[in-house]
Amino acid sequence: MNPLAVPLARWYESSARDLPWRHDGTTPWGVLVSEIMLQQTPANRVIPYWLDWLDRWPTPGDLAQAGAAAVIQAWGTLGYPRRALRLRECAGVIAGEYDGDVPSDEETLRTLPGIGEYTAAAVAAFAYGRRAVVLDTNIRRVIARAHTGQSLPLPHLTTAERTMAAELLPKGTASVRWNQATMELGAVICRTRDPACDSCPVKGLCAWRQAGYPDDQYAARRRGQGWEGTDRQVRGRIMALLRQADPESVPSAALLATSPDPDQAQRALGGLVADGLAVRDGEAVRLP
């Protein structure tokens, strides 16, 4: 018996954010698109992109027929746009092999382009109401704190963590509400930094709180790369110039000027071309 499940479900019923992909009538395709867009992007930023995307391409077949440049433009600044092209590939498989119907089981979902363990489980749970172990960063953090008393989960998902999450997952349809509520709690209250513990609906059950909020024992292993001066930043600058010029090409010299380091600019541009996000056109470059 998971003692966190009932109070979290009650809290979610009264406090969940009104996000459009949670509305009745959202198709499995709409849920799939939302999950891809929400990867490393806050929900409030995703909303306008998701609405526009579903308006333009309401079915997998619609997206499969779209041009690569249009898809990249519609993706905007939601993160590295390779995900957008992979979603287009995924749509083509769904349209061609599954008659336009998003598969409902995790095993089949994971065979689709760009669909990994988390996304497959999320679509199975949120689009089809299936019992699935959904483990995004928010759910992992809530389980680590409330159940195990750790400040944050391990830097990388482990088999033991998957087993523990499966044991906590309620039976039947209650599993869907558990996934929704735990994810929501991690997003709005049990945040990585500055958690709103006094507002938490399960603060009386939280093992981390009871332990006196111990520090993150894996902090040294989490030091990530910053943004300023990185290849990622330069790729973003190049993509911004290409989107602004589309459908025209941009001189290569202008793109290589996006970094004070010529080798870095060449590396960033080469990566975009290799990923199918840009096409060389003589001495210029354009969207595909």
For the structure shown, list the relevant keywords.
3% strand; 288 residues; single chain; 3-stranded antiparallel sheet; mainly alpha; 15 helices; Arc Repressor Mutant, subunit A
Describe this structure in words.
By secondary structure, the protein is mainly α. The chain has a domain of 56 residues: Arc Repressor Mutant, subunit A (Orthogonal Bundle). It is 53% helix and 3% strand. The protein has 15 helices and three strands. It has a three-stranded antiparallel beta sheet. Helix 9 packs across helix 11.
Mind describing the biggest β-sheet? Answer: 3 strands, antiparallel
CATH topology of the domain at 231-286: Arc Repressor Mutant, subunit A
The outline comes out as globular
Radius of gyration: 21 Å
Whole-number mean pLDDT: 95
Supply the number of helical segments: 15
Q: Stretches where pLDDT falls below 50 for ≥5 residues?
A: none
CATH 2nd-level architecture of the domain at 231-286? Orthogonal Bundle
The run of helices and strands is: HHHHHHHHHHHHHEHHEE
CATH class of the domain at 231-286: Mainly Alpha
Count of β-strands: 3
Per DSSP, what share of the residues sits in E-state strands of 2 or more residues?
under 5%
Tell me roughly what share of residues is in helical segments. Answer: 40-55%
